Amino acid sequence: MRKLAAAGLAAALGIVLAGCGSGGSGSGSDKSTVTLWMYPVIGDQAKSQAFWAKVEKDFEAKNTSVDLKIDMQPWEGRQEKVTTALAAKKGFDLVVLGPDQIPQYAQQGTLEPVDDIIAAEKASYLPNSLAALTVDGKLYGVPVYQTITAPIYNKKLFADAGVTEIPDTLAELKEAAPKLAANKVAVLDYPGKPEVSLNQSFYPIFWANGGSIFAADGKTVAFNGPEGVESLQFLLDLKAAGGLPENTASKGNDIEGGALAGGQSAMYHAATALQAVQLGKVIGDENVGIGLPLEGKKRVAFGIPGGLVMAKHSENKEAAKKFAAYLSSPAVAADLAKESGFFSARTDVTIPGQTPAAAEFAKSLEFAFPGDTHPKARQVMGIIAAHLQAALLGKEDAKAALDGAAQEANTLLASGG
What we know:
The chain has 417 residues and is α/β, with parallel strands linked by helices. It has helices at residues 9-18, 45-62, 78-88, 102-108, 115-118, 127-132, 155-160, 170-181, 202-208, 226-240, 259-262, 273-283, 317-327, 330-340, 356-362, 377-392, 398-415, and strands at residues 5-6, 32-38, 66-72, 94-97, 111-112, 134-135, 138-139, 142-146, 150-154, 186-188, 265-271, 288-290, 301-302, 305-311, 368-369. The strands form four sheets. Strands 1, 2, 3, 4, 5, 8 and 14 form a seven-stranded mixed sheet that branches. A four-stranded mixed sheet has the order 10-11-9-12. A two-stranded antiparallel sheet has the order 6-7. Strand 6 (134-135) and strand 7 (138-139) form a beta hairpin. The chain is globular and about 75 Å long. The two termini are 44 Å apart.
C-alpha cells in the first residue's frame, strides 16, 4: 500500500505528472495503479489522514490486484491543476469535482461517463445529486458526499420581539422585520461583501422567487428579469425597514464575531451545519433554531454533491470503477459523512452519531440545488456581486443594478472570455 501523499502544487504537477501518471503498474508489478486526487473534505488533518489511510488499506485488502494511491490535494489552485492534468493526460485516474466544474471538462471530452458504476443502485441516490453531476444526459460524477445549507436563527431574539412564529417564507421574514428593528435587531444577517459566494447570499432568495441566472440556451443571462428585480428589491425593502445589518454591503458571513452571534441580527438564511454549531457555542444550543429554506414561489437550498470523476485518459478504468463503487458504498459513505460533517448523497445511509442539529439540516436535502452549472458561472457571479453591493450602498436601484450586471455578463459570454 502506498502512503498518503500530501501533495502541493509542485508535488502534484512536478512529481505526479513526471512520474508514472495515472496508469500502469508504477512499481514494476502486475498490479493496476489507481490514483485519486482527494481534497480536505475532512477539516481535521489528523482525522483526514486516518480516514483515508483506512480507506486505502481496506480497499486494497479486498482488491489485491489494485495499488491505490490517494494524493491529498489543497483546495487552492484546484481548477488550474485539474485542467493541467487533464490536458497532459497524466496525474490522476479519479478526482473529486463539483457540479460547476464538470461541464467544461465533459464538453472537452476529457472525462469518462460513470453511469454504469451506479446503475444497480441508482434509486438509492438523491435525484438532485445525480442531476447536478449529469451533463447532456450522461453522469460524470459518482456522488460521494452532499452539502446543504439552511436557515439558522436566534429563537430568543424573535421571542423578545413578540414574533411567535419563526418566518418560514420570504413574505413572513419581511413582515417580521419592523418588529425586530424596534429592538435594534436586523431580521436577516445578509452578507453583502462581494467575496462571499452568492450561493450563500443572494442566489437562494433569487432561486426561491423562481429565477435562473442564465437563459435556457446558456448564451445570455436572465437574472435581470422580474425574478431578479423582485429579489433585489426584497433586500432593499428589508434594509429600509431596518431588517439588514448597517454594514450589510461589506459584511461577510462569519458567525463568530459577527452580528448573528453578537445579537444584532436574528437569522442567516443560507448557513451550514458547522455555522449552526458555531452559533450554539456563543448563544447556547437551546437558543439556536434550524428551519427549512425560506419559501418564495418554491423552496430552494444551496447544496452540492462531491462528484468522483474519472479521467478519460485513465489506463485502468475497471480498477478505478471498483474503487469508485467502494468509496460510494453505504458503509464508506456513512463514515465519510460522519468524519466530514457533510451528508450522504444516498438515501439508504445512516450516519453514525449524527447530532440533532445535523438531522434538522438533513431535512433540507430534498431542496438542494447546486446552482447554475454554466462554464462561466463563477465569472458571472463576480459581476453580479459588485452590482448588488452598489445597490445595497444606495448607488443603484434594483433594476439599474441588475441591468448593468447583465450588460457586462452578456459581453463576457459573447466574447468567450
